[in-house]
Amino acid sequence: MRFWMVLIVCLIALMACEPGGTVYKEVTEVDRVTGKETKRYGKNGEDKYLVFTRNETFENTDTLIHGKWDSSDVYGKVEVGKCYEFKIYGYRSQFMSMYRNVVVAKELEDEECEQ
Question: DSSP assignment, residue 54?
């Protein structure tokens, strides 16, 4: 039992100290999409949609907390090469392969996108 407690504390400390950090935020960011990918995981073959931008990779999954049930529709509307205002939340942890989640993706005109 003591081993598992020490292991959990060490993992939490490692995630908190890793480059890029593990930070929970609810923010809006503007960025250009550079790629998209669907990853299948789990025994039930659940999908995780990944959206790659110039600065970060986001996931796009349904979430009970934010009442979001349209991740497939959001993913289908996001186009590579276009600029979006993303409302995102969650944790980004390279160590745990966790990504912040897209709640809303609003397309912007090119001149509204930061170069």
Answer: S
